[in-house]
Design goal:
Elements: H1 3-15, H2 25-39, H3 45-69, H4 71-76, H5 92-113, H6 115-134, H7 141-161, H8 166-187, H9 191-196, H10 202-220, H11 222-232, H12 237-255, H13 265-289
Helix pairs in contact: 2-7, 2-13, 3-5, 3-6, 5-6, 6-7, 7-8, 8-10, 8-11, 8-13, 11-12, 12-13
C-alpha cells in the first residue's frame, strides 16, 4: 500500500475520530457476550466480526455526516477550525462519498447478520444521522447522541438472540445517560460560541453550572441502573467490581471540571470515559464468561 493511500486513509480516520470508537464498542461487546450467555448459543467468530464491522460502518456514517453538515460551523469555531474539511485536508464531496459508502456497507452487514437487524438498521441510521441536526433545534441534542450510542448493546444482542431481553435494554439506558452526561461536560467549552451562533446545548441554555448539575444528575441515575442490570442479567461479584470502578470514574470527571476551571475537560471527556468503558466491559465480560 503506497504512502499516499495510507495518508488518505489516515485523513478519514481523523475525520471520524476513529479512536472514539472506544466509547460504544465495549458496550456492544457486552451485548454480544450477554446474548451468548442468555441464549446458550455458541460463540461465533463470524458474527463477532460482522458486529465489529457494523459498529465501524455505522459510526463512520454518523461521524462523517456530522462533519459534512457542520463544516461551515466548524470553520467559525477556533476549537474545530482545524478539522479535516474546514482545514482543506478533505473535500466536502469526498466526505459525502465516504458517508454514502459506509451507509451501504452498514446495511449490507446488517442483512448478513439477520433479517431483524436489517430491518432495524434503517431506524438506527435515522437516529445516527438525525443527531447532526439536533444542535440546530434543541438542547436535548446530547440525549439524541446518547441514544445513538445506546443502540450498540441492543443491536449486538439481537445479532445473536434475534429477540429482545430486558438486560441489554437496561445496559442501553446506562449508555444513554453516560454518553449524554459526558457530552454535556464536553459542550461546556462551546457555551459562548453556541450562543453567538444560535446553536443549542444544555450549557448554552442553563450555563456552565447548570450544565454540570444536569450532567451529574444523569450520571447519578446510572447507579441504580447498574444494580438493576446486575439483577436482570444475573451477574456476579466480578461485575460489581467493574461497576464500582465505573462509578468512581464518573465521579472523578465531575471532580476535575468546574464552572471556573475548564482546563481538564479533555481529561474528563477522553481519558476518564475511555478507561470507564473499557474497564467496565472487561469486568462484565469476564463475569459472563467465568
Amino acid at each position: 500500500m503506497s504512502n499516499t493511500i495510507i495518508k488518505e486513509i489516515g485523513k478519514f480516520l481523523k475525520l471520524v475520530k476513529f479512536s472514539h470508537t472506544i466509547f460504544a464498542l465495549p458496550f456492544a461487546l457486552i451485548g454480544f457476550f450477554l446474548a451468548v450467555k442468555i441464549t446458550g448459543n455458541n460463540f461465533s467468530w463470524w458474527l463477532f466480526g460482522l458486529i465489529l464491522m457494523a459498529m465501524v460502518f455505522a459510526r463512520n456514517s454518523a461521524m462523517g455526516f456530522n462533519r459534512y453538515l457542520d463544516r461551515e460551523i466548524d470553520a467559525k469555531n477556533p476549537r474545530t477550525s482545524s478539522r479535516e474539511i474546514p482545514a482543506g485536508h478533505l473535500s466536502p464531496g469526498a466526505v459525502k462519498v465516504f458517508v454514502i459508502a459506509n451507509i451501504l456497507l452498514f446495511l449490507i452487514v446488517a442483512l448478513m447478520i439477520n433479517s431483524l437487524c436489517f430491518y432495524l438498521a434503517f431506524p438506527t441510521l435515522a437516529i445516527l444521522l438525525l443527531y447532526s441536526f439536533m444542535k440546530r433545534i434543541t438542547s436535548l441534542c446530547h440525549y439524541v447522541l446518547g441514544l445513538a450510542l445506546a443502540i450498540a448493546p441492543v443491536g449486538a444482542y439481537l445479532s445473536i438472540a434475534g429477540v429482545f431481553h430486558p438486560a441489554p435494554l437496561v445496559l442501553s439506558l446506562i449508555v444513554l445517560l453516560w454518553v449524554s452526561g459526558f457530552d454535556i461536560i464536553y459542550a461546556l467549552a462551546d457555551e459562548e460560541f453556541d450562543k453567538e451562533q444560535n446553536l443549542h446545548s444544555v450549557p448554552q441554555l442553563y450555563g456552565k453550572r447548570g450544565g454540570l448539575i444536569i450532567s451529574a444528575i444523569g450520571h447519578l441515575l446510572i447507579i441504580p441502573l447498574l444494580y438493576l442490570f446486575y439483577v436482570v442479567a444475573e451477574m456476579g461479584a466480578i461485575y460489581l467490581v467493574g461497576a464500582a470502578i465505573f462509578v468512581v470514574l464518573l465521579v472523578y470527571q465531575h471532580l476535575i471540571v468546574s464552572p471556573s476551571n475548564m482546563s481538564r475537560i479533555n481529561a474528563a471527556f477522553f481519558t476518564a470515559n475511555g478507561f470507564a468503558s473499557v474497564i467496565f466491559a472487561v469486568f462484565t465480560i469476564a463475569d459472563i464468561l467465568i
